Predict the structure.
Amino acid sequence: MQGIKNIIFDLGGVILNIDYKRPQEEFRKLGVREVEKLYSKQNQVELFDLLETGKISEKEFVQKIKESSDLEISDSEIIAAWNSILLEFPLRRLQILQQLQLHYNIYLLSNTNEIHEKAFNEMLKVQCGYPSLALFFDRVYLSHRVGLRKPDPKIFELVLSENNLKKEETLFIDDSIQHIESASQLGIKTIHLKDNMTMEDDIFKAK
């Protein structure tokens, strides 16, 4: 952490526990075909990219999923299947963010969508009483709000420029290697949170 003044966090897999396989399983139960080709940690079809960059609405997304199914599916069933990826916020991670706010500028940079944003903020409210994840950060960048998504270098450049951050003083933490590589190429310091690693056990350990 020597020389670091700013920390940019990914959300899913870093702060919020997620399970990429659960939506596949839930969509399969609903009769959606070739789920693995639609969405995975490494890849996703254009439909999900459009949702994550705010180019289609929740309603349009739901309709497209219905067209991929042989069955009559309700909107709520599709939303529930999509939100099944979201698990929980480990309390220790939220405590770490609060502690880091005292010493660093911290930012959230997440590929996400309006459906998940509503869901994870509601989870946080139920779990901890906080109305929004934004309370833990100096500024929040969500792909569906800014119209860009990782690993596009432009989204990293946006965070740096809007907050006058020096790349050599900035650390980016993410669980997806393609995002880490993109940030590294810009000169941002990075930590790749690999499988079975956590921010509380492997980065910000209690002394």
Summary: The chain has two domains: 6-16+89-202, 21-83. Residues 114-128 form the longest helix (15 residues). The mean pLDDT is 92.
